[in-house]
Structure formats: structure tokens, C-alpha cells
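User: Predict the full complex structure for these chains.
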Amino acid sequence: MNQKRKIKIAILLGMMCMFLTLGICIQINTVKNSTTTVGRTLVENELRDSVLRWKQKYENAYYKLEREEEELANLRQKVSSKDNNASNLSSKLEKYNELLGNTEVTGKGIEITLKDGDSSILKNSANNLVVHDGDILEVVNALKNAKAEAISVNDQRIVSTTAITCVGNVVKINGEKVGAPFVIKAVGNPSMLLGAVTMTGGYIEILENDGVDVNIKQVEKEKESITIPKYNGIYKLEYGTIYE
Amino acid sequence: MNGKITMTISIGCTALILTMVMFTQFKTVGETDITAIETMRETELRAELASWKSKYEEIETKIEEREKTIGEYNSELENNQNSLKILENEVKEAESYLGYTALKGEGIVVTLKDNEIYNIDHTDLLRLVNELKVAGAEAVSINDERIIGASEITEINNRIIVVNTKRIAGPYVVKAIGDKKYFESALTIKGGYIDEITGSGKDIEYNVQDNIVVPAYEG
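Assistant: Here is the predicted structure of the two-chain assembly.
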């Protein structure tokens, strides 16, 4: 009788201990998780706020710079109205600014849209179906080869310092994130541009063979012309000096 | 006697379960540290913040420059002087950005060579130039052909490399002006450009220098 009671008490004690431990453990776990997420979201929210603040500051500064560029253009015009040499320099500068991508460009040309292929239709490996930074680089290069006057990818103007990269699975152009579908616009001779990208062995053929979804629109009429935005970055020389 | 055995067994069982729970706990904590999705988002935000800050600072410097030029024009106009000098400076500045003037400064010289098995192709050069631009190159040339905004890097018959409509031959010497340390780390990073080129059996050499001259574009 005494023995049986002892056994019962021992089992009861053991089970109680077990539940208690389990409870404590779960509790600790939950508490730990919740505090860290709250802490993290707090930090993240603060960061998001400052990102927005600095973006706003940048946008204001950009607006100010644009006003100043306009003022400079006016001043140049004022100066050139009196002097022939000044007027020559002034128009040279205007041409240079166009070449630097500091102006919006409108005209005939082509528009190429690259989209990731559909893996359910094609049996190609998923990697081939995806549009990579290198693909955009090659298409842009082919368009340059066909004497494109201005090129943009998803409204990022391609200029001399433009880099096209991949960070994780995000493509960045001019340091800005751009996502698929990639719309590559080029102003220039439409048939020359089209020929350069669609020729046999050309890069569009390679992409189509990979299963990438390619769509090309040729704009030959002035009416439905292509518009390419101006470069929204700035040029600077920090390491290089003019060498004469 | 019997009771003692039962007691020992039950205590043993509890201890066992306790240890198991503890281990599970440790494992979960360890796993969250490895994946760290939450922290990655934080780093991403920090990178974003840094990028906006530097963009803002860049534009502020530009605004200062422009304000100075505006002031110069205004004072010249007031004194009825001709403003040719200011215009000339503006033209010169634009030319330096366009690649119409030679630039000198610190940077990197990368040499790509054909070997017995593999030839350097235009994509190798195109990608190298792109990598250098990512690292902030202010001027780039390939075999003294200055790379400007409109420059193409192509290949005829999959053999001859053409830059600025001119044929060039190996060894391909690519010069870039910019932060030399940044260039070096950008190229030598694990799985980066140099790893990829050597991995595909091609030859590459580089050295960082303090005084590199990248020639002007000759159209």
C-alpha cells in the first residue's frame, strides 16, 4: 500500500516537472522572439524614416540644381547675344550637354522589351530564362555599335559612367534599382538599330534561344516618336585631373 | 526498493526530456542567426540610406559650383566685360566629362592576354569596363582607345576586337582612373571578375598605380 502510493507520487512529480520545464522553455522562446522582432522593426522603421528624409533632401537639392542650370542657360544666352565668339562657345556647350545626356531626347528609333521567359512552357534551365545584367549590357553595346544617339533602360539614361550590375537578384543601373520587364529604348536610325540587334548570331537571337521573352517595336514615324529621359545623376572628377 | 527504482526512472526521464528541449532551443536560436533575414533587411536599408546621403552630398557640391559660375557671369555682366573666360571654362569642364581631354590620376591597369587555348573576347572587355565603372571609374581606355558614352566594344568574325570603330589586338591594356583601392577590391573579391576570368582559363594581370594617364577620345 505504502509502496504503491510512493510510485504514484513519484510519477506525478516527474510529470509535473516535465510540463513545468516545457512551459518555461516555450515561454522563454516566445519572449525572446517577440522582443527581438519588436526591436528590429523599431530600428527598421527609424531607418526607413531617415531614408525617406534623405531622399526628400536629395530631391529638393536636385530641383534647386535644375533651376540653376536654367539660370546658367539664360546667362549664357545673354552673354552670347553680344559676342560672336561667346555665341559659338555657347552653342558648343549646348551640344556637349546633349552628348552628356543632360537633355531629354525625342525621335525615331526602337524599343526592345526583355522579359523573363516562362519556365512552364520551355524546358530550359531557369537561369537561361532570366534576363541578366550582362544581357542588358550586350544589347546596349549592340545599340551603341549601331550609332544610337541616346539609350535608356527603364528610363535610366545610359551615359559614359553608367554601370549595369546585379545585386542579389536586383538589377541596378546608374545605382538605381530597375526591375523586369526591361524596356530598352534607343533613338537613332531605326533600321540600323534593328539590324544590329536582330542579325543572325546577334544578341537578340541568343536571348530568344535561351527562352527570354523578347519584344521589339520599331518607331519610324515622327508622330509616335520615342522619348528618352535625361540623365539624373551628376558628373564629377575626384581622382582625375585634366592632363595637357 | 521498488519505489527507489521507479523514482530514479522517472527523474531520469524528466532529465532526458529537459535536455532534449534545451537542445532544440539551442538549435532554433542557432538557425535564426544563420538565416538572419531580418538583419539583412536592416543592412539593405542602411545601404540605401548611405547611397541617398552620398547622392545628396554630390549634388550639393554641384550646386555650389553652379552658384559660383552664376556669380561669375553676373559680375562680368555688371562690369560689361565679355564672359569668354567663364564660357571657356564651362566648355573645358564638359569636355573633361565627355572624354575629349586626357586625364591623369590614381587608378588601375588591367592586362588581359590571349593564351594558347583561350582568346579574350569582347564580352570579357565589356564586362571589365562595366566592373570598373561600378567601382567609380572616371575615365577608362582600352589600348589607349578612350571609352566614352557612345563607345562600343565589339568583335568581327568572333576574332578581331573593335573599339570606337578601330581594330585592336591583344594584349589588351585597360586603364582606369579612380579610387585604386576600390578598384582592386572590386576586381579581386571572391567570385568577382578576376576569379571568373582565371576560372575560365584566361590570363589576367593588374597593378594599381598613382599616376595613370588615360588619353583623350579621338573621334
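Confidence is low (pLDDT under 50) at residues 33-38 of chain B.
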